[in-house]
Amino acid sequence: MPAHPLRALREDIAAVRFRDPAARSAAEIVLGYSGMHAVWAYRVAHRWWRAPGMKLSARLLSQVVRSVTGVEIHPAAVIGRRLVIDHGMGTVIGETAVVGDDVLIYHGVTLGGNERHGRHGKRHPTVGDDVVIGAGAKLIGDITIGSHSQIGANAVVTRDFPAHSVLTGVPARNRAEPG
């Protein structure tokens, strides 16, 4: 069950302070963190998306937020608590993406689909809890990244990986696995 909006706001601010050593105050986060603004707007758009007759309004809100913050989160995506998008610009989270709790995403990250010609259904990544996704990483398709994993900058991930993975390279390989 989602946290009460005020509690969620406090959790988000605390998550940024925990994850970003440059964050000096709650006021700075509330006023100046575009990634946080994108997450908060997503939460409104997601609520609208689920309400009858509000899909267009939700989609339009998401596009306004994209133009202001540089972060595009489809309102149908499912995002857990305390998501931190640091620097944000160029980040895209697709329609059927699922993101767990306590995830940190850096700029230029794509959680994208790989299906063509209007196919419906699950086509974007599922990311577990407490995952760090480095700048420029691309996670493509209906894949699952296990909890407590780390994805390096510019990695291209196109298949499932278990919890506690350390993914780097193109295509990504799990550096936490022997051999």
UniProtKB/TrEMBL annotation:
<dbReference type="InterPro" id="IPR045304">
    <property type="entry name" value="LbH_SAT"/>
</dbReference>
<dbReference type="InterPro" id="IPR005881">
    <property type="entry name" value="Ser_O-AcTrfase"/>
</dbReference>
<keyword id="KW-0198">Cysteine biosynthesis</keyword>
<dbReference type="InterPro" id="IPR053376">
    <property type="entry name" value="Serine_acetyltransferase"/>
</dbReference>
<dbReference type="InterPro" id="IPR001451">
    <property type="entry name" value="Hexapep"/>
</dbReference>
<keyword id="KW-0012">Acyltransferase</keyword>
<keyword id="KW-0808">Transferase</keyword>
<dbReference type="Pfam" id="PF00132">
    <property type="entry name" value="Hexapep"/>
</dbReference>
<protein>
    <recommendedName>
        <fullName>Serine acetyltransferase</fullName>
        <ecNumber>2.3.1.30</ecNumber>
    </recommendedName>
</protein>
<dbReference type="InterPro" id="IPR042122">
    <property type="entry name" value="Ser_AcTrfase_N_sf"/>
</dbReference>
<comment type="pathway">
    <text>Amino-acid biosynthesis; L-cysteine biosynthesis; L-cysteine from L-serine: step 1/2.</text>
</comment>
<comment type="similarity">
    <text>Belongs to the transferase hexapeptide repeat family.</text>
</comment>
<dbReference type="InterPro" id="IPR011004">
    <property type="entry name" value="Trimer_LpxA-like_sf"/>
</dbReference>
<keyword id="KW-0028">Amino-acid biosynthesis</keyword>
<dbReference type="GO" id="GO:0009001">
    <property type="term" value="F:serine O-acetyltransferase activity"/>
</dbReference>
